[in-house]
Amino acid sequence: MSRCRSFFTDPDYEDLHEAPAELGAALQTNALFASWHSNNVHPHKKNGYAIVTVSMKETGVAPGDITDRQLEYLADLAEQYSFGEVRVTHHQNVVLADVTQKDLHALWYQLKQQDLAAQNQGLLTDVICCPGGDFCALANAKSIPIAESIQRQFPDQQELEDIGQMDVKISGCMNACGHHHVGNVGILGVDKKGEEFYQVSLGGSSKHNASLAKIMGPAFAQEEIPQVVAKLVSVYRDLRQEQETFIETYRRVGMEPFKEKVYAKAD
Q: How many domains does the chain have?
């Protein structure tokens, strides 16, 4: 390990200790900042620093998309706040890995000016999806409109935070560029006699206790998907135990309660 470590040089970190008082004050007085801090800011190995995830999942924008102006702006912020380093993640987000805690509020405020302060990292609307039929010749179905329809189904930030950590991943074909097979909820575009349908799987995870998702049942039309996800969330919220995430509830109760709710026929 020490040999591997020798190939990497730490940035020129400041000698910092406790979180500054002004950070605590901002968290107490600014609910939007507090929400962003709770979801998008993570602990750092170095005292006084934090890891910041810049979510590329603003509703109405294709997941992972960023404009040229936003990209230049983000590069400037990286120079100012994170030793000039930006990391792009497989979650289709961006990480500023070395931000001082005293700069977090200023960074958030500047991100907000360019619509880069979505406070949904790791939540239901932090959807991962491939380009799908809008841009890819291999796709069986569109992906981006599905992601947006799910985001619009859950516009309330408090509800999202109550739902908690939940991975939704969408692929437009079996090539699985959206990693749907390891989503807590995986959505796969399929072709049924020339029409676009979507097969839903449950129980996937790419975390330490990894698992492949299992197909729930027959595929759905595009317009049905937002309500399908809403029903899955409803079952989870009804059955979860204290502090349980979606995947933890699924592993405890199994597929059947979710399947029963989603495929139940209206009276």
A: 2
